[in-house]
Amino acid sequence: MELRTYIARRLLLLIPVILGVVIIIFVVLQFFSPTQRAALYVRNPQQFREIDQIIEKYHLNDPAYVQFFYWISEVLSGNLGWSKSVNMPVAEALMRFLPATLELMIFTVPLTIFIGIRLGVTSAIHRDKPVDHMTRGLAIAGYSLPAFWLGLMLLMIFYGFLTGLFPPGRLGLDAEMVVSSASFVKYTSINTIDGILNLRFDVVFDALRHLILPVATLTIINLAFIMRIMRSSMLETLNKDYITMARAKGLDEKTVINKHAKRNALIPAVTVAGYLVASLMAGAVLTETVFNYKGLGWWSVNAAVQLDIPAVLGFVLFIGTVIVITNLIVDLLYAKIDPRIRLG
Fold first, then answer.
1. What is the dihedral of CA 56, 60, 61, 64, to 10 degrees?
2. Beta-ladder partners of 83
3. SS3 for 85?
4. N or C: which end of the chain has fewer CB within 10 A?
5. Is pTM beyond 0.85 here?
6. Is 89 helix (H, G, I), strand (E, B) or coil?
7. Superfamily of domain 88-147+217-341
8. Residues of the chain with CATH 1.10.3720.10
9. Cα four-point dihedral sign 326, 332, 337, 341
10. Which of 189, 261, 268, 193 is closest to 230 using CA atoms?
């Protein structure tokens, strides 16, 4: 019953948080002229010839609270404006580019979590030994590298010097022609999954070749986050009385580490894994741009360069909602793992 009450309370708190995000975005909108804001209400390119009518229809010269009512009504109806950078509605563009970013996340998140946890446990077990210093040094160095620099170096080595071993983009020309053909069914628009479902393993292989470098870039940069939390949690757990008791009973060190220490030390790492998903979704902008990987990040950068206001605000609104919902899921998972949180 306590868990249900906690969930209900967190769900209720979600409403003002999302509303706060929306209000902040709306306040930013007020810095633009009515003519610029009119693009947020356009549903097709022909309407750009009717800007004055749109300004009047949606009361863009009226007080802010009146404008907010009309704007939020359009947002809730799915109209986020017209993206001139890709010549389609913003809502449609979000759905078009989202699968590419999700495909990056599908491969990046498990690798980041697995390697980060593994390095964290190894560092804790061999505390202040050479392997600990080397592991922490490599992880922190990777975390400190700018994403665009690391991406360019990987491209220079694996695409330049090694003559196109791991190319940029999402697919090669041949695979793109297969995916665009009428016989290829796009179940999810995620190339690796759709390739498997269509039994086109040449598409799967080509998609994986294009994924290796951006996935490696994101993994190297972000795994230190999980590693440092896992190392700290593991060190704290290894000093607990029940670990000392387990060793005193004669249990071998492998059993003590894997069965007693590691399982309990995983709680903080599992909790922050949810935050990692949200941060990667928002933080893949530079990586997608460097590798010409046409996902949400690539689209948002191109929109910003072309002053595509509806697209940029649509991206910010989407990412803000993802972060808020992810935080909610993390809170609920934490309450499930550690019942003391519900009582706080």
1. 140
2. 88
3. coil
4. N
5. no
6. strand
7. MetI-like (1.10.3720.10)
8. 88-147+217-341
9. positive
10. 268
